[in-house]
């Protein structure tokens, strides 16, 4: 049985993004005080930053305007320099981010930390919050004294923090004068961040307060053991009936074709998208917001999953197992598939090498209609700055500009791999390969990548065939990606009650698929959800959507 460290598993989760459904990130203040200040309705909207793509190594596989990523089958041989001067002034900068890694060695004994400090020209005081403690720690930070705030704060996308937008508007620097329109040209790497990331981050009260962490278009993905599925009859262009047959054929003994983790609703994101159901919210041509919960296609996906569970295709612990433990079962062949973020491709391919062949599943068709895939929020959180004098804000933005260096640059290599000969060596194709020290001192344990990051590309060191396969998959599915229409919009009700209401619906889905509740319970649950706040959310999203368009 292949073994895998907890650190590697946590890193896999961090790269993959949201493997389970979570509320949106940029929400309005609670309805107790109204959303007039943070809503975009009735406000003059700041123009998005002018997008100026960086020049760098030409990709081997071309991107598309629809959202297919640039692919690199080998590491660039000639790295560009994206920053002309050291951004810092020798001062100390306090930063805070979420972390999915293990605590780093202290700065005094950490050569990766020291190398980044030298390149940035500042001393970094780093407060690192584990993902498990993030909500609790952020609640304390948000309620604390303004002067005690770190200079740079990562607002993680995985949770809805109560009154988050109100906190940002009150305590964070308004970055509109520095980043809106052509003003961003002072920070070329930040100007390289595509507009879709800024849009999905969203404005607050019409203003720009953060810097988004750009992510690919594909979201929750069904990662399959390609050999297991192929041996069980998987074929391109498969139907829902074919999927059911493959799942039943490959499940035998203590091997299950379908794995799922606690809170993932039996992988409902993949199945609801295959049924072409809206992903949380859809918007009509006249600007009306419609909830996915009331769509018959969403209900049909729940019924389909309930049948898959009834015929024994799911692992029996699908409602209780953790994502970490499910990843272990996936790698050792106990389960033939698992839902995870698309960004999990890097650890999926690297950690499974020589053990099994991972692949992103193509959606099945339903009733002859090609299935869709989940479109991710294009901003995996965002970064805000503590209010400060102009010169200090500019210094902090220069630091973030350095960290946002594009793939194929010297700065990107330093931030992602450290120092050559210390933290990595070169593979046959020139790709960085971590040394034992690089496995400990890196940007997972010192998560600089959650402060700022350039646009992501498709690249798996030393595995060009994996890059080609992922690029081909994206070309097939990106035209069928289903986007949540509420991304980047404000809703006071979602902020104050959204998490509770979402849990209510999610528990109903899980109960039906698990066989504890009849499918007939769904309509009653949706009716209750709408009366308790769902309809108000629809009205608020429609209002903000109209303001943004």
The helix-and-strand class reads alpha/beta
Proportion of residues in helical segments: 25-40%
Give a short account of the largest sheet: 5 strands, mixed
The total tally of domains equals 2
CATH fold naming of the largest domain: D-Maltodextrin-Binding Protein, domain 2
Structure annotation, total helices: 18
Low-confidence stretches: 1-12, 18-36
The total beta strand count reads 14
Shape: globular
Kindly report the name of the CATH homologous superfamily of the largest domain.
Periplasmic binding protein-like II
The CATH architecture of the largest domain can be named as 3-Layer(aba) Sandwich
Task: Please indicate the percent range of residues in DSSP E strands (runs of 2 or more).
Answer: 5-15%
Protein name: Sugar ABC transporter substrate-binding protein
Region (Disordered): 31-66
């Amino acid at each position: 049985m292949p073994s895998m460290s907890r650190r590697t598993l946590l890193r896999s989760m961090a790269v993959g993004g949201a493997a389970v459904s979570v509320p949106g990130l940029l929400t309005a203040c609670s309805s107790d005080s109204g959303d007039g200040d943070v809503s975009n309705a009735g406000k003059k909207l700041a123009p998005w930053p002018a997008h100026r793509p960086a020049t760098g190594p030409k990709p081997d596989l071309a991107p598309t305007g629809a959202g297919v990523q640039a692919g690199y089958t080998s590491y660039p041989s000639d790295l560009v320099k994206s920053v002309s001067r050291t951004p810092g002034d020798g001062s100390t900068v306090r930063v805070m981010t979420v972390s999915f890694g293990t605590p780093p060695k202290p700065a005094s004994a950490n050569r990766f930390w020291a190398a980044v400090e030298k390149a940035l020209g500042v001393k970094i005081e780093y407060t690192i919050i584990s993902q498990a403690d993030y909500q609790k720690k952020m609640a304390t930070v948000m309620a604390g004294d303004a002067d005690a705030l770190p200079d740079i704060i990562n607002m993680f996308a995985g949770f809805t923090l109560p009154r988050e937008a109100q906190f940002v508007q009150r305590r964070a620097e308004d970055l509109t004068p520095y980043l809106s329109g052509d003003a961003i040209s002072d920070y070329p790497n930040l100007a390289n961040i595509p507009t879709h990331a800024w849009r999905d981050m969203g404005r607050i009260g019409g203003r720009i307060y953060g810097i988004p962490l750009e992510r690919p278009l594909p979201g929750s993905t069904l990662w399959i053991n390609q050999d297991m599925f192929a041996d069980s009859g998987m074929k391109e262009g498969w139907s829902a009936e074919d999927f059911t047959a493959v799942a039943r054929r490959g499940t035998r003994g203590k091997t299950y074709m379908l794995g799922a983790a606690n809170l993932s609703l039996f992988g409902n994101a993949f199945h609801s998208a295959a049924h072409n159901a809206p992903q949380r919210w859809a918007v009509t041509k006249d600007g009306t917001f419609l909830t996915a919960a009331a769509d018959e296609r969403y209900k049909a996906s729940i019924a389909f999953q309930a049948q898959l569970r009834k015929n024994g295709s799911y692992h029996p612990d699908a409602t209780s197992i953790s994502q970490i433990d499910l990843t272990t079962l996936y790698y050792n062949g106990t389960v033939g598939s698992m839902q995870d973020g698309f960004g999990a491709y890097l650890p999926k391919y690297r950690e499974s090498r020589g053990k099994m062949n991972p692949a992103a599943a193509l959606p099945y068709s339903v009733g002859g209609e090609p299935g869709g895939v989940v479109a991710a929020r294009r901003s995996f959180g965002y970064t805000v700055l503590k209010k400060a004098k102009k010169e200090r804000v500019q210094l902090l933005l220069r630091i973030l500009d350095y960290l946002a260096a594009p793939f194929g640059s010297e700065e990107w290599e330093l931030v992602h791999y450290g120092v050559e000969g210390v933290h990595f060596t070169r593979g046959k194709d020139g790709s960085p390969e971590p040394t034992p020290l690089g496995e400990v001192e890196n940007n997972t344990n010192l998560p600089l990548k959650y402060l700022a990051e350039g646009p992501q590309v498709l690249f798996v060191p030393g595995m060009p065939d994996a890059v080609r396969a992922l690029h081909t998959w994206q070309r097939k599915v990106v035209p069928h990606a289903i986007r949540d229409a509420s991304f980047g919009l404000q809703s006071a009700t979602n902020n104050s009650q959204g998490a509770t209401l979402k849990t209510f619906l999610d528990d109903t889905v899980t109960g039906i698929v698990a066989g504890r509740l009849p499918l007939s319970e769904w309509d009653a649950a949706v009716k209750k959800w709408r009366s308790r706040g769902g309809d108000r959310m629809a009205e608020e999203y429609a209002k903000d959507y109209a303001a943004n368009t």
